[in-house]
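Incident review: delayed structure delivery

Summary: a single-chain prediction request sat in the queue longer than the usual turnaround. Root cause was a stuck worker, restarted by the on-call engineer. No data loss occurred. The affected request and its eventual output are reproduced below so the record is complete for anyone auditing the incident later.

Affected input:
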Amino acid sequence: MRYGFWAPVFGGWLRNIVDEEMEASWDYTRRLCVRAEELGYDLTLIAELNLNDIKGVDQPALDAWSTAAALAAVTRSLELMVAVRPNFHHPALLARQAANIDRISGGRLSLNVVSSWWAEEAKSYGLTFDEHDDRYGRTSEWLDVVDGLWSQAPFSHEGARYRIDNAFCEPKPAHRPTFYAGGESEAAKAMIARQCDAYVMHGDAPDVVADKIADMKRRRAAAGGAPMTFGMAAYAIVRDTEAEARAELDRITTLDPTQPGFANFEQWLSGTELEREFKLQEYSVSNRGLRPGLVGTPDQVRDRIAEYEAAGVDLLLLQMSPQHSEMERFAQAVIAPGRH
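Output delivered after worker restart:
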């Protein structure tokens, strides 16, 4: 299993806890990522939102791409998975920007391609927001342009949304960055099976995740592509006793409807296809992070992770809070014993 973590670009992950002791700042992010390498983490996911959907739209949210460029220069081994929304970035310019960051990092950049879900954010910044299936049409063409610029010189393209005429991307990436993407609609899964390298999922039970992986493997084989890898989001709580872990779970899921993130989450809910009815835990922690059940003693959490390995998960994208101290605890209790 590879272990990744979400960079704290929003100042936390919990909608019911105001201060998680993890500020949305470059200094905190830098110190966390440098330490994460020492602890054995493999990857960081740098989310991209211009408005903070966890702590409230008026709260700080770090820019993903400038943060990634800075991290490329101060880290040595972490894979930098940077989220990118095709409707917010022209593909030819993003291809050049990404290639340069990949060179700075020594070939450690990857892209988490997100077909935007938050209409209000796009409206706030005067940006295009496509209807659901149109998002994947845009993403598909966007990927064609980025891949073309990374592999050809010069590159030309004339499509429904983009026209490129003898453009160059030099220097090219040190290594072609991996394309990660997630989605549960038919349009999303069809596009990902054709054009991406890895499928990332919200948290869910092992049997549900196993079914999703089997479905994507069938789709990938039908598309004639190389084998995919599979990642899953999860929130982790590790304690010496199960009772202590459950007490922490109770603390973070005690509902506070006055928090500003509540209204934003309601909009997110209306714009996605959920497979379960709305629950308190899914409001409290983003990306269905509590569904995997990584809550308990080190042995319990390791056993649960083994179930996901058996289901076909290659990468866990972890959220924890407060992140610095909890990542230390998780690494010592879960990662290190599994690698010795």
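Verification: The first strand starts at residue 2 and ends at 6.
Action items: add queue-age alerting; document worker restart procedure.
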